[in-house]
Amino acid sequence: MTRPKSKKVFVGMSGGVDSSVSAYLLQKQGYEVVGVHLKCWNKNGCDEEEARDARLVANQLGIPFYVFDMESEYKEKVVDYMIDSYRNGLTPNPDVMCNKEIKFGLFLDTALSMGADFVATGHYARLVKEGDKSFIYQAEDKNKDQSYFLWTLGQERLDKILFPLGDIQKDEVRKIAKKVKLHIADKKDSQGICFIGQVTLQEFLNEYLESKEGNVLNLEGAVIGTHEGAHLYTIGQRHGLGVALNTPHYVVDKDVKTNTVVLAEGNAQDLEKSEVSIRDFRLNEDLDLPSKVFARVRYRQDLHEAILDRFGENLVLKFNQPVRFVAPGQSAVFYNESGKLLGGGVIL
Questions:
Q1: Which domains does the chain have, with CATH numbers?
Q2: Which of 45, 169, 293, 294 would be 334's cystine partner, CB 3.0–4.6 Å?
Q3: In the prediction, which pLDDT does 3 show?
């Protein structure tokens, strides 16, 4: 009797513990696994070390290994997008754009053209089959859940994706890596924006956006200090304001046209929004509006109960209780009470 041919999966291997264990688990499940490191643009050349770690893991698992050069595409689709967003006074989400354009865009398309049935990554999110369709749910490990960054993925993409870590706690992932003696078992997780290197975000942006001194205002419009460019600030920012004040203050508003930044004390109602408009959205086909949803307007923030409805060409999200630190340019992501991802969009 002829053994059924194994499904082939290309695993995006960053060189970290999550993607390495993902490759191991899929191999153990009987998939024909191919390791792929995505060479993306970054400032400090750390990608060489990451690629070496990924290759060592692939060698240990005995799987083929490739490096896909996506530097120019990453620079255009992710880095330039981030810089342009800050230039225009928005707070971008490069992880969302990376998933849309690179990992589950260019990488997925390239893998399929080379004979893959699926691509997989080390994302903490669950894919659940309901009938003939796949839907994203929050990960079992709520502290590591990354479904927030995956809202742009439609059905045609989800049918070709695997998330092996969706039902596993992070601690268990490290235990698996140690059990099979992967050399990256104790490697620290990456933090912050991966491609800017060993500099602060402000230092990185200063290389691309011209500094321009402007006024820092309080809620009454009085000048309480100066700054080096409104584009360097984000709504809800507390640290690095460059103004000495007796009580904690946050950025409540900014205007790149007038080059002004407005601060408010931590208990100010101006930090709260009762509703927001959403552009460039994607919704599950079976979601009827208006609908009760649980919304997240920045990563790791609590979910907030709200009503989602259409408003012209956009959506409007009306919160049951006011929400703090809503930043234009960030993603608003919607779930049901079971943790099913219903869609998302960009905050206006």
A1: 8-196 (3.40.50.620), 215-267 (2.30.30.280), 270-347 (2.40.30.10)
A2: 293
A3: 43
